[in-house]
Amino acid sequence: MATVLAIETSCDETGVAIVKNRKVLSNVVASQIAIHHPYGGVVPEVASRHHLEMVNSVLDQALETAGLDWSAIDGVAATCAPGLVGALLTGITAAKTLALVQNKPFLGIHHLEGHIYASYLTETTLQPPFLCLLVSGGHTSLIHVKDCGVYHTLGHTVDDAAGEAFDKVARLLNLGYPGGPIIDQLASQGNPKAFTLPEGKISLPNGGYHPYHSSFSGLKTAVLRLVQALKQDNQPLPVADIAASFQETVAKSLTKRAIACAVDFGLDTIAVGGGVAANSGLRNYLQEAAKLHNLRVLFPPLKYCTDNAAMIACAASDHLNQGHLSPLTLGAQSRMSL
Ligand code: KG4
Ligand code: ZN
């Protein structure tokens, strides 16, 4: 029954949470979205500096909300990879220092393992094996979750991540950052059948297509060409129709691959994680398709879909229960396979 305090600083959210096994005792997130908004994306150096400024107060808040002092904490964890190195270093250094000073075990957690664990926070009945569809700003993966720490990536994007595609399309439509929620909102007012956009497919040497890998850079280029053509004709840009058509293409593509994976590998549950799990188009498509195949789909609440430390603490708590620890020499890495 391990109680773990975890720090998440892989990108633009400073998160600290305390989780006792799968129960969240506190989950504090200081978002930097407003700070990066004028730049149209996350500026790595700015992100690290703000994590440094925020981490102590977020930490105090997490302990205060949980009503705990250090004697109740069994371990200290931090996201160690993948992510922005400067940002990761802030969290991992804080966690290692606390572990050393408070004489607690330290655990470095893979960010994607955290996103997988987000589903356990509210679905107490969830047990491996299951399929995780992980769709965030940096990743688009289909992961066969076999056990704690045992993961097999079955599919991934070969270029842009799904969230990155939402952000880039929003930028070329001058909609602001982050693009996902804005496109989602606009799409609800548009016609998803207004424009036919290409679903990225990965060719195989035998002439077929990879059933689980995805590609979004061609789709983004198709939206760019469409916008250029419409502008040339001096037509007012039907932004809501473009947003709806783009969103439907992404939702269909992700749904098709996730269902194929689950069916082919005999997995009856698809747990969705990452910021794009908030997308209403994806939620609708996947839920409808899953019904047809008798599959269960789990979407964690929004606060656990986007980056947060509760999912990191949950993963760390499971690892600690199994006696897994990390050395204090562990560093941060921008890239690391799961
Ligand atoms: O998981 P996350 O918070 O951070 C990463 O680890 O990347 O995901 C952020 C991504 C951004 O690209 C954002 O545009 C996207 O999730 N996102 C959405 C929605 N809400 C956030 N994409 C589509 N629809 C949404 N409602
Ligand atoms: Zn993430």
Assembly of the depicted chains: single chain
- For the largest beta sheet, what order do the strands appear in spatially? 3-2-1-4-5
Query: Total helix count?
Result: 11
Percent of residues in helical segments? 40-55%
Percent range for β-strand residues? 15-25%
User: Structural class given helices, strands, pairing?
Assistant: alpha/beta
The largest sheet is:
5 strands, mixed
Radius of gyration over all CA atoms, rounded: 20 Å
Overall domain count: 2
Count of beta strands: 10
Write down the overall geometry. Answer: globular
Detail the poorly predicted runs: none
Please name the CATH topology of the largest domain.
Answer: Nucleotidyltransferase, domain 5
Q: Give the averaged pLDDT, no decimals.
A: 95
Bound molecules: 5'-O-[(R)-(carboxyoxy)(hydroxy)phosphoryl]adenosine, zinc ion
**Span between N and C termini?**
25 Å
Can you describe what's shown?
- The chain has about 350 residues and is an alpha/beta fold.
- It folds into two domains: about 5-115 and about 305-320, Nucleotidyltransferase, domain 5; about 130-300, Nucleotidyltransferase, domain 5 (2-Layer Sandwich), CATH 3.30.420.
- Helices cover about 45% and strands about 20% of the residues.
- The chain has eleven helices and ten strands.
- The chain has a five-stranded mixed β-sheet with strand order 3-2-1-4-5, with helices on both faces.
- Helix 4 (about 110-120) packs across helix 11 (about 310-320), helix 5 (about 160-170) packs parallel to helix 7 and helix 8 packs parallel to helix 9.
- The longest helix is centred in the C-terminal third of the chain and has 26 residues, at about 240-265.
- It is globular, with a radius of gyration of 20 Å.
- Zinc ion binds near residues 111, 136, 274 and 307.
- It is found in: Cytoplasm.
- InterPro entries: ATPase_NBD (IPR043129), Gcp-like_dom (IPR000905), KAE1/TsaD (IPR017861), TsaD (IPR022450).
- It catalyses: L-threonylcarbamoyladenylate + adenosine(37) in tRNA = N(6)-L-threonylcarbamoyladenosine(37) in tRNA + AMP + H(+).
- Belongs to the KAE1 / TsaD family.
- Its main location: cytoplasm.
